[in-house]
Amino acid sequence: MAERLPRYRPLGLRLTGAPRIDFAAAGAAEAAGYQRLSSALDRISSYAFEEAGRRAKIEGEEFGYKLGQNPDQIKTALEAGANVDDIVGDPDTIFGAASRAAVGAQLRVELETDVRSKLAQLSAAIEGGDILDPADVETEIDAITEGHTSLLSQFGSKYARQYRATIGTLAAPVYKSALEQSYKLRNAAIAAKFDAGLESARDIGYKIFNDYQGGQTVIDGQVVLDADAKFDVLSRSIIDEAINTKNPANINRAKEYVRNLRTDAKVNALRKFARENPSDVNLTAGLFGNKTALYYSLDEDSKAKVRDEIRDERAALYRENENNIALSKRKAQTRFYQIQAEIDLLPDYADQKREELAIEAESIAKTGLFDVSQDDLLSLRVRPERPAQPSSQDGIDRVTQRVIESYIIDIAQLNEELAFNNVRGKEANTIRKEFLAFQEAQEDKIVEILQRSKLSFGREISKDVGKYILNALPVIYEMNKTENKKLLSEGKGPELLTQTTQRYIDLKIGETNYNNIVKLRSDTKQAYGKYAPNFNWDNSGIQEVQDFIDRIDTLPINDERKADLGDQLKKLKRMLSE
Amino acid sequence: MSAALPVIGVALAAVSAYGQYQSGRAQAKGLARQATMATIEAKGKALDARAQGIEALKQLNKANAALNARAAAGGIDPFSGSAKSLAVYNMSEGAQEFYISEDNQIILREGGQIAAQNYMQQAKSAQKAGLYQAVGTLGSAALAYSQTGGKPSGGNTASVWT
To answer: Measured between CB atoms, does B28 come within 8 Å of chain A?
Structure first.
């Protein structure tokens, strides 16, 4: 038996299982921690947002309230193209929603206030008597309402609806008032038209009978006057107008008016005919030419009225004619005697005036309104013989003084003054000579003043200054005459010729031409003086200038300059001759 | 202060969102580790099954050795006749158990892998859930912030309307 050999005895070791660790639970626990943290933060965050929303709502309402107080500015902004969201805020936000609601509510109140005010104005206007067309009132209210509604609808249709409802309630009585006023006005207009119709009917009615030529027509088997038939149409028209007024009083009034008008118009037509055709009328027989039928269509009272009125009218015409003749006679006589008196008082030298008055008196005499003797007519042209009287010393003094004071400026005026002041003969001639000498001295003085004003002294006067004085003299005399007329009419003393001359100089009348000539001379001399040193540049006359023009071709200058010099000289010549 | 409130709300919501994100991440990490753990567990069990297979082979060797020894001691040819039949029988039984242990290894390893994949899937879902929750919180905060609103740019009464 073989010995059992030692062998390894296994200990029975086995692989142990891996320990079971729950990582998932650990992760879940960690996650739960985070979740709790998040939940806590979420609650705080929610609170923050809720609080922010609450405050945003309050701020939005405040903002909207302030904004709503300026409807005009909102309207302007919207019309300018602004977006409503840019004005009130985004409606999707708490602020914007609150703001929009507040703006809408406030804006509605503001706009309603505006409209109330406007409606109050309209009411006051209607009550005050202003004439307003209801259609215009409606249009105006609608225009305002539409504009406001459109504005409000941008902030919410609710506000637009509420606004429209309120305005509808407020505007109804105003519109009603306008309608009532319009109705009253319409009735008044119809009544006025009716009244005006009655007024115009008078003329038409009168014309119908004035135009009547005696014609007749048959209506419904009855013979009636043409004029009556026409008048019937007119009366129906008047009564229709009265019916249109829907006023029974007007209808009765129209009927009575038509009745009276027919009679009055016939009476008037007959009276007129009698006035214009007196020879065709026989009042006793009742004949009125082609209007006789008209006379016989009247009742007896009216016929008597026609007769009486025509007689009265004829009597009045006769009286008026007599009065006119008497008045003309009185006027003619008065004028004739006036002429006689004027002729008696005329001075010896006033032959022309005497002749004019005599012709007028003769023409009055020829009217035959009153009797004028032949001697009276002949005596009109006889110069009254007045005894010669010596010149009055007072008159001489007065005339002399008036000459010196420049009240008298020409010889004709002097003659009148001499006669008026009883200065004649030798004394008068002496004053005339002194007057002429005085005038001459004055003219010398004027010339001296004008000459000095151009810085020209002595006897030698340049041609330009001479021309200046020559032009000035008539103007100064005319100025003096005009000014003195004015001064004398104002009761003031006359202006001396020397004073007028100074005024002429001060006003620089006549300066332009003189200065232009001097300047033209100077310019031309400067440009061309060296080519013609012998020419009298400063004081050449028209003939000298013309001679120089004829000699231009001999000057040592080119053609262009020759032409220019020629133009300048021609211009100077023209100015000297003006 | 009123203007700061929405900002505070947003800030708190942002921190909360971060917490939610971290929560998802923590859960995902735990599940990922759990997946690794499941793999390791499966490998351990597979090794147990392998050890059982080895034990079966050892038992087979032991039975056949005893059979050979006893047959030889009794003067019987152990590689023929009944001895051989017994040895074949032992071989058949032992091999069957060995193959069973091999199948067990496969089943355990595969099962562990499936469990690990399952855990990883859960981890991904948890992370995504955390992320989505965070985004939701931030979105809500942004919405609440924007809903608060304020004065419009052109709506300053002092500067524009007067």
So the answer is: yes
Candidate from B9, B26, B33 with C-beta closest to A48: B9
Provide the domain count of chain B. 1
| Distance separating alpha carbons of residues A273 and A291, to the nearest angstrom | 8
CB count within 10 Å of CB A309 equals 15
A340 vs A158: CA distance, rounded Å: 104
pLDDT band for position B105 (50/70/90)? Answer: very high
* Contacts of residue A112, Cβ cutoff 8 Å, sequence gap at least 6: A163, A166, A167, A170
A 75-94 residues inside an 8 A Cβ radius of B: 77, 82, 85-90, 92-94
Query: Hunting for tokens 């003939």 — which residue is that?
Result: A543
Inter-chain Cβ pairs, chain A and chain B, closer than 8 A: 178
Asked whether A237 and A211 are in contact (CB, 8 A), the reply is: no
Look at A49 and B5 and tell me if their CB atoms are within 8 Å: yes
Q: Where are the beta strands (DSSP E) in A493-532?
A: none
| Stated pTM of the model | 0.41
Answer yes or no: is B53 within a domain. yes
Assembly ipTM: 0.73
Arithmetic mean of pLDDT over chain A = 85
Q: Residue A4's closest chain B neighbor by CA? A: B69
Length of chain A: 578
Contact A45 B28 (CB under 8 A): no
Residue A405 structure tokens = 């004071």
Mean pLDDT along residues A454-475: 84
Bridge-based pairing of strands A281-282 and A222-225 is: unpaired
Helix (H) or strand (E) holding A225: strand A222-225
